[in-house]
């Protein structure tokens, strides 16, 4: 794997659009290594590489809700954590969950919003009673990936699977409130160390 400059990656203005999906997978893994959280939680390097690749492959090629966007969200979370006081408010495991959730948050997005899905009476709209149609679909897709692939079943790896899943669902809710999140991030940036 190519070595990446952590100082460039820790910059909020990191130019992720200049990299291929494969390179963004490698950079994602590099970020996990830098954070040094996965090994502390019984998640080995190969498992993490496989999970990142599988998440990437489950994104569609669309203008916005694609792998680059997933990386972008994870990157913002990563930068905020290391460039602010956020690390004083999160347990390391919560940060790990947030990184994985960032990469998984828009899995299998087809480029249409909830209103479109509801008006078209899509299968997911009916399944989720018109509530958080896409958010619920993304969570369901993530669970399918990890539970239908025994080598990716994270519940076998970590000691706190219930906590992991509840945090994933919580982060999906937070995702819907991205404007509020950006305001919170600005607050954490203000209180730099």
TrEMBL record:
The keyword Transferase does not apply. Residues 1-193 form the PDEase domain. GO terms for biological process: signal transduction. Keywords: Hydrolase, Metal-binding. The keyword Metal-binding applies. Zn(2+) 1 binds at residues 69, 105-106. GO terms for molecular function: 3',5'-cyclic-nucleotide phosphodiesterase activity; metal ion binding. Pfam families: PDEase_I. The active site is at residue 65. Zn(2+) 2 binds at residue 106. It comes from the Eukaryota. This is PDEase domain-containing protein. It comes from Ichthyophthirius multifiliis (White spot disease agent).
